[in-house]
Amino acid sequence: MAGGLSIIATRSASTFKQYDRHVIFDEVQKVPELFNYLKMSVDENREENGRFVITGSGQFSFVRDITESLAGRIGLLSLLPFQFSEIPAGLRAEAVYRGSYPEVVRTGYQNAQDWYSAYLEIFVLRDIKSLVNIGDLHDFRHFITLLAAQTSQLLNYTDLSRSIGVSVSTVRRWVSVLEAAYVIFLLPPWYQNLGKRIIKSPKVYFYDNGLVCLLTGVTTRELYDKGPMAGSLFENYVIAEIMKNIVHSHASDQLFLYRTSHGEEIDLIIDRSTENRSLKLRKRPHSGHRWFVISKC
Known about the structure:
With 297 residues, this protein is of the alpha+beta class. It has helices spanning 2-10, 13-16, 34-44, 59-69, 92-98, 102-106, 112-131, 137-149, 157-164, 168-180, 209-216, 221-226, 230-249, and strands spanning 23-25, 52-54, 184-187, 203-206, 254-259, 265-271, 276-281, 292-296. The chain has two domains: 2-69, no CATH class; 143-296, no CATH class. 45% of the residues lie in helices and 13% in strands.
């Protein structure tokens, strides 16, 4: 598709008008020349919305180009891996350790490990390295592996820097890169109760459990259920589901954790404009999908 876009983008504006209504342009970050034509076409008819759908997988260059060229002319949508409700009922029990990307769900998780291996090598490592300066690729891969092993845990930048042998500032930059690429997200601490000693470090979560399981070697249901990552994977899956719902529904809810130096902890606080809710997550063997208890703050 990128080759066809290149041909369109290098021809005259009159040629481009053949493709100016109800068209989907995919991987547009590969042909930045296209944005000028899109801008001109939109400006000629500002009354008709939805004439173009443009998609891209390179978060960094894609957002930069469209915000610079099409500011005020676009609506941005972020599409994360499938939510629980979008996965066929017969595959939902596997999603917690096999992941939720459409490509692996669509095939019933056939060759899922191969797909995630390619995703890690091509997008997470190669594409991100081509877009931002991450330094040594071996260290960056080691960093992602350590993050996966620490999913659903407090993020300690100093410990990570010591383990990898890089500076704390480098670790912070790498965390920001993975956040911008929608690989991970951080859950910040809740500071509402100033009368207690609150742990101020965030927790780290991955948007998709499949990548975590690839990096930590959890390849079967038995390894998930009985392995040391069971609780962390379960918590990651539930909180990622809530985050995906917020992003896809454009809700204004904010997510926080609560933990004191005395060990008092709430896994998740959902801060809404009208109320707050707290969630304590517990993995219960053989409990179907009744996975967590919800109580009001």
